[in-house]
Design goal:
homodimer, 132 residues, two-stranded antiparallel sheet, elongated, DNA-binding, 69% helix
Amino acid sequence: MRIGQAASRAQLEPSAIRFYESAGVLPAPARTDAGYRHYDETGVELMRFVRRLRALELPLDDIREIVRLWTSGEAPCQPVRDAITRESEAVDQRIAELTRLRAELRSLQQRMDLIVDQWPQSCVCHVIEETP
Amino acid sequence: MRIGQAASRAQLEPSAIRFYESAGVLPAPARTDAGYRHYDETGVELMRFVRRLRALELPLDDIREIVRLWTSGEAPCQPVRDAITRESEAVDQRIAELTRLRAELRSLQQRMDLIVDQWPQSCVCHVIEETP
DNA sequence: CTTGACCTTCAAGGGACTCGAAGGTCTATG
DNA sequence: CATAGACCTTCGAGTCCCTTGAAGGTCAAG
């Protein structure tokens, strides 16, 4: 099948597939006489595998290595576990950051609403200037 | 003062200041005879203002507009409130996404640990292949 | 006079793609 | 058989927010 159908079956964009190929994540497929990429079931399976790993927001560098082992017949279990561990920690950190940020934004909103209620004409921006 | 001192007083990198200037966020400062950028207190204050808005992870496009009003004497209160509202919603959404992702990652980790405990030699990657 | 710290500009890189342009191919229909 | 329209190709540039590096100029202290 050609890239469009492979893409829709793997739930990826054709542009993403071409990008993964150019980035060395997916192997270069066979070509038809006209130069069209030609994929088989295995190719689509590999795309799905990549999509699932990307859905976990693993970096492409990790996925490339995992796919390399996978396609060379070696089980990439340990790299997968390691990548998931790293990603898990990164996600925890980012959630903590965003939680702090959300509190900060909420507090700013409340203070600005308060000021607008009390002195409708006054400027509200100085609340930004308080924090160091 | 020159860019280095301004940067350390505003808690920004010199490269960031140059970038903000090139991006039209900070105004171009005066120059010494040798071509060095020369900043005064107002310049540093503006840098601090920008840093605080960036610490809220507001996009530079919003900050550029806010700074434009600010430096033209107009109070940018409403744009600031709007930008903070947008950012607040974006942060809420991202936290929700990451929370789902964290649950997914935790679940994968647990299932993989379980498999490794029970069948130490078996491949663990097929847990990735279950999800659609 | 030299050393070292600071400054200048410009170009490139990172991450993970998407989009557009210019052009080739395939298929169904009139 | 011609042609419309859907699909494919490559390549380059754009997104976002800076950082890093190269090549070179300036300044103060020793």
